[in-house]
Amino acid sequence: MTTPVILVVEDNPITRKSVTAALQEEGYRVMEAPDGRTALAQTQSERPHLILQGLVLPDMDGYDLVQRLRAVLGGDVPILAFAGSPERRDDRGSPGMGFHGYLYKPVRPAALVETVQTYLASPGRIPVQPVAGAKILLAHHDDGQRMLQKARLERAGFTVQTAPDGQRALEVAREWAPHAVVSDVLMPRLDGFQLCAALRQDPQLASLPVVLVSAAASQAEDARLAALVKASAVVPATPDCRPVIAVLVQKLREQAMLPPAPFSETYSSHLGRRLEHQLTLNNSSNNNGAVHRLELREAELAILAGFADMLQRSPSADALLDELLYRCLDASGVSYGLAYVVEPEGQLCLRARLGYPETARTDLETFFGQDGFLRRVVEEGQSVVAPSPHTPVPAELLERAGARSMVFVPLAAGQGRRALLLMVSPDRELSQDWASFARAVGSQIGLALELAGAQAGLRESRDRLARIVENLAEAVIITDPQGRPTLVNAAAREFGEAPPPELTALWQSVFETGQPVRDRELEIRTPQGGCRIISVNCTPLLEASGATGAVETSLLDMTSRRRQVEDLVRSNAELDRFAWVVAHDLKEPLRTVAGMSQSLTRRCRGLLDQEAAGLLDRMTGAAGRMQRLIDDLLTWARVGFQSDEPAAVSSEEVFQAALANLQAAIEDSGAQVVHDPLPSVRGNAVELGQVFQNLLANAFKFHGPDPPRVEVRAEPGAEQWTFSVRDNGIGIDPQDAPRVFQVFERLHSRDRYDGTGIGLAVCKKIVERHGGRIWVESQPGQGATFRFTVPAAGTEPPP
């Protein structure tokens, strides 16, 4: 049998594509034409069996086109017109002179196919003979899908009751005694499988055919579960419900639950449906309002059903707004429409138009000079039909817009913007039903636009994050549980294509234990044969179940840094050794100068005048100060030089030894020293003793009129102890606090307080070598508190 060819002539791409898809699903071959000229050209190349044609086309009037088609094809090819309302019918389109009939928008796929099949046979479907009068219980959690499936089953001749979940379906089944049950697999309370099991346990309902409908991509698992609960069948979810209807008919006939329907009953049912369809097409005055309201409700469902697909295909809120405008106008049967967006700054922008020519763009951008009226509608946020007693509009606006009435739909457009969807009818008074339709659809459109804006923001954030990760100086790799990299940035690709075995072993460990790896250093071989030192951090990325779904790894090349650190350590060691050697070598000539000056003083006492004796005393004092300076410099240089490795040390014993060394200073100054029991720490006993001794000596030296009082405390931390040495001395200006730890830095003249300015620098060097820090808290005249930290015993030494 030759496949019938249908020519669809429609300038609205949404209508054209939806009609084409519905016809192709039925097995028809479809040609498309967006305008009259294309339609005429296609009929020259191939003769169609039926034509579906719009009345409003961009290049010619629909009634002119049908006459030209008749001249080419004759009168034996049926031509049906898409019309927005019965009022738009014209005597020129009467049978025999133009159109054979009309399809009123919104064009519902089921009504379209049924109308086409009155003129052409369906080549791709085997008709299903329904069981007339059979009672079907339909359970589905989605209100929209439940309504659509109910309509399709009723159209097939079944009597249908519905339930929103499995528990309610079980109650309805016991009350209503259906002949079969159709249930969605996924539902609240009781799902489809649980419902079937419950029905099988009820003696009155155990033999009912139960058809489960699954939307899963793979139904193997559903089929296995269905067999366990003794379901009659599992069928895929389809828009036309044909698999469900076919199984219902088969199961009901097999179980002989109903006798074959007599011809008279079947014919009456068929005739009734045809009369109902014809009544809808005629749209008589008796049922016009009810039918129109039903069409608007179905239009709502058609728009809402396509939201998910539109969100996937439309990359931005603006593109989604364009498509929503087309869908609303197509579903509602209105030929003209506009979409505006009010930016957060208040700017009014035209985003989409349909039906209006390009020459009208300037007028449309300012809404025919009535943008103030448009802004008021947007600000009020209520869908309205105009003109109306509540919403008067300037007569000039209606005239320039070519409108008899308008429907305004304010909505949110995401990212702080507001939008307005405008539907315009040039020949109809749009009733309050249109306002209800606009409010219902507008609220959902607003949510869709908000979601589209959020998705766009999410995509932008994801892309920005991807660019940041790609350009990081630190190498980043993300691997799946099989150890396969799913993300590798540019820095990581420099390590080669295949990860080294040491790295894959770390990944396996993280997947097995779920524990992160921190600052692990690895030596890996490069493809060029060299060796690189890398610092590795691995973090498990957990799934919702708590299992490790991936591992994020960061790699930092430490090779050059390690060499720099080694060079710096070597340089510092050489510098320390140089200072020690220089200071040591200076001591001998200085000792000679000091000895000679002292000998000269003894021999010449009484022989020199007062001036010469003063010069000799000054030389002897300078030599002594130089001697102490060199001794302190040697002490500073010896820190860390040829010292023992850090070990557990009793700070109490170290502190007592320092007190013993300072016993003479304590007696001379009358100092009082109190302290808490001091803990064990990890460090070098000699060096820590030097810190205590220098801090105590300064407290005894820099005191005021009262005798020195010193308090020594120790406070525990996470992995360290914080020591404090507090005195009642002259104090330090906070601005001078950083200076006191610098070498040779003095805050007072030598006449007031003797010293070389190295003692605190030695303390700083020792504390930092132990991995701690030292600081002072003080105010002038209020004493000073020196604090320093030392690792607790049992902790790892610093690198």
Give the secondary structure arrangement, pairings included:
Blueprint: E1 5-9, H1 13-25, E2 29-33, H2 36-45, E3 50-54, H3 62-73, E4 79-83, E5 101-104, H4 109-117, E6 135-139, H5 143-155, E7 159-163, H6 166-176, E8 180-184, H7 192-201, E9 210-214, H8 220-228, E10 233-236, H9 242-254, H10 263-282, H11 288-305, H12 307-313, H13 317-332, E11 336-342, E12 348-354, H14 361-365, H15 371-380, E13 384-386, H16 395-401, E14 405-414, E15 417-425, H17 432-470, E16 475-479, E17 485-488, H18 490-493, H19 501-513, E18 517-525, E19 531-542, E20 548-557, H20 559-603, H21 610-638, E21 647-650, H22 651-661, H23 663-669, E22 672-675, E23 680-683, H24 685-701, E24 709-716, E25 720-727, H25 759-769, E26 774-778, E27 784-791
Parallel strand pairs: 1-2, 1-3, 3-4, 4-5, 6-7, 6-8, 8-9, 9-10, 22-24
Antiparallel strand pairs: 11-12, 11-15, 13-14, 14-15, 16-17, 16-20, 18-19, 19-20, 21-23, 24-25, 25-27, 26-27
Helix pairs in contact: 1-4, 2-3, 6-7, 11-13, 11-17, 13-17, 20-21, 22-24, 24-25
